[in-house]
Each structure stands twice: as structure tokens, then as C-alpha cells.
Amino acid sequence: MHLPRINPVFSRLFTGLLLLVCIGARAAAYEPFDIEYRAEIKPERGVALVTIQLRGEKLPSKLVLHLHGDRYKHMQSTDTLDIEGDRATWKPSGTSSELSYQFAIDEQKSSGRYDSRVQADWAILRGDKLIPPIAATMKSGLQSRAHLTLHMPNGWSAALPYKESSENRFPITDPGRRFKRPKGWMILGNIGSRQDMIAGVSTKVAAPLDEGIRRQDTLAFLNWNLPHIVEVFPGFPNRLLVVMGGDPMWLGGLSGTGSLFMHGGRPLISGNRTSSLIHELVHVATGIRGDGESDWIVEGLAEFYALEILRRSGGISEKRYQQALEALAEWGRESATLFRKRSEGATTARAASIIANVDREIRSATNNQASIDDVARALAEERGQVSLSQLRRLAAEAAGKPVQALSDRALSN
Questions:
Q1: What is the pLDDT of residue 77?
Q2: Given pLDDT bands bounded at 50, 70 and 90, which one contains residue 130?
Q3: Where are the beta strands (DSSP E) in 78-200?
Q4: Are 274 and 324 in contact, with CB atoms under 8 Å apart?
Q5: pLDDT tens string 198-254
Q6: Mean pLDDT, residues 276-295
Q7: How far apart are CA 171 and CA 154, in angstroms?
Q8: What are the residue ranges spanned by the domains of the chain?
Q9: Architecture of the domain spanning 32-266
């Protein structure tokens, strides 16, 4: 059957009109509402007075706050609020709704040290603890525009992994999330900072004043090593905040969204020639977590790159790099199994050795055309929870065949 030829001018006109209709429909579907987070810091009481205010023509119908721990007190709302155990269910109505509570800033570990702390002249905490995880029920197309405003004692300033839009007010970016909330580390008070643009990343190192913390040394170390991390992980956040503090803070490093905490007493390069700072930077880059038996993958990758990045930047020689790998393999023999809920010490050393073996095997199979970098980059792109089957799949794709270093036999030896 012969079909009539369509006039190309009419075809282009019809396509353009269809595109405009689609754009209009998409614009109509996008309905913004505003979230204003306010936190008033009260050092003398050890708390932050938090208010979450929603405004818009349409608001989420239900918000469930997951209150892990007992740090959230005196919660109340202008609308329906039901608190049961560690869940608070808030049901906004109308065009404006507000929730408020008192947040206890100090969080002490069993070791006696703190991973969140407020003192007379400074506070170090995480935004995703200040504002707990929130599950939002809202209609399709509803999107939030969020800001965090900090009210602090006179003379205090703040550093967050967000760009400051006005004095102590920060627009919150949270890609992929329709209900945005603050995340990552923050430091407030009488603080000093050093900053630079490194490999396209706006980088800041901040710490309390008068604690002898070497901000400039840390920034120089980042200048040498961060470009090599960004080369492996091109999706690295475009802003990085390194918060540092002394005692009684946690004696180590802890990563967060676009940020990390590092105790000021930790060496930039440890005695075993790995770097705790690089280890945490890799966590920032990948954004992955274990599935209950796969924390060794998360920690093994971070520890491998804590050594590998130093080799690439010239921080350690090839000879000392090989010696460090041998030392990790020796230490790793003390670990009876990889499949623990949490990977530490000998288990992480063993995991790093396995990752190094995977790298060698991929390079050998591809004549150095692929490496563990391809696997790590893919994990970072997929993000979220990782598993052994996922690692095996990505390694096999890079090598062009199954990788024996990840076989049941290799992992059980």
C-alpha cells in the first residue's frame, strides 16, 4: 500500500509543537515548596533548638522522622504529630506547617570520645543527625527548595559542605531527593579555615582556633593527592569540607556527604604508609555501604587507595609501596573471615590485599588497558549498597573474564 509523503515543513512544525506541549506538561507537573531549617545553637545548654518550616501551595501529606537514639526532645508541631518509639509521624496541612524540637548535640562513644560535641566556643556535628532521616509521602512533581539558617552566639562563624548564600544561611543541595535535608559535617564557633580550589573541587579545611591544628599542612597534602582521587572518581563532590578537632573528639576519621572529620592528632601518613585522610576521602567519593557481609569491600577499597594514591602522587616510593602491601597481607592473615558486619583491623588489611590482587589480575588480563579504577568508578556511579556479586560482575566486565582473586576459594583461604 502506498502511503502519502508527509510534507517536511509540516513534520518539523508538528514535532516542535509536540515538544512545547511536553515541556509545558513537565513545567506544570513541577510544583515547588520551601523548607526552611533553622537551628539556634545554645552552647551553655548543649543543645540546638531546631525548627522545620514548610511553605507552599501544596505540601507533603506525611513525613516520618526516624529518631535514632534519644537526642530529640520536646517535639511539637502546628499540625498532627504522632510519636511512637523512634518514629515521629508529621502530617502537614494547608500552605504552611512547622515542626520544632530540641537536639542534644553531644554524642559520646563507648571509648569516651565524641563524634559530636559542643563546647563554650565551638561545636562539631553532622547535619544528617541535626535533621534526622525523613521519609516523605508527597504527590508526583512536588519538589522542595531547602535552606538551613544557623543562629549562633556573637562572634561565631560556620563552615558547611554548602555554599553560603547570605550570612549563616545555606541553600541545601541533595541530588536525586525531592525532600531535601542538610547532610555532612559542620563546624561552628571561633574557628579558622584554609581553602583552595583543587582539581575543580572547592576545598576547605576548618578547625577550632588555638588548638594547634595544622590546617595549611592538611591543605597542602590535599593539593598533592586529591587530583589523583578525582581522576579515579570524576563524580567526586564539587565541594569538600574537612573538619578537624582535637580531644575529646573521636581519635580517627569519619566520612560524611561532601565532608569528613579527622582528629587533629592523626598523622597525614601513618606508620604503615597508608593515609587515614585519603581513606576517608575515598568513602566520600564512593558513597557506598556494605550489605551486611560486604563491609570488607567498602573498607578494603578505601584502604587500598589510601596506599595506592600515595604511590601515584609520589608520596611514597614503589619500593615502600610494595613493602606496605606485603605488610597488609601479613596482617590480614590474622582475620579468620571477611564476612563480618563491620570490617576493622586485620579484616580490612586482608580486604585491601584482595583488592590489590584484583587490580593485578585485571591489569594482566587487559595488558594494562583496565584496572581496579574501572571497578571502583562503576561502584561509585551505582552508589548505595554493594555486594560480592556486584563486585564480581564489575571486575569480570573490566577483565573480560571472571576474576579468580574473587573466587570462593580465594576468599575463604
A1: 98
A2: very high
A3: 80-84, 87-91, 96-104, 107-108, 114-118, 122-126, 134-137, 142-151, 157-159, 169-172, 185-189, 191-198
A4: yes
A5: 999 999 999 999 889 999 999 999 999 999 999 999 999 999 999 999 999 999 999
A6: 95
A7: 22
A8: 32-266, 281-412
A9: Sandwich (2.60)
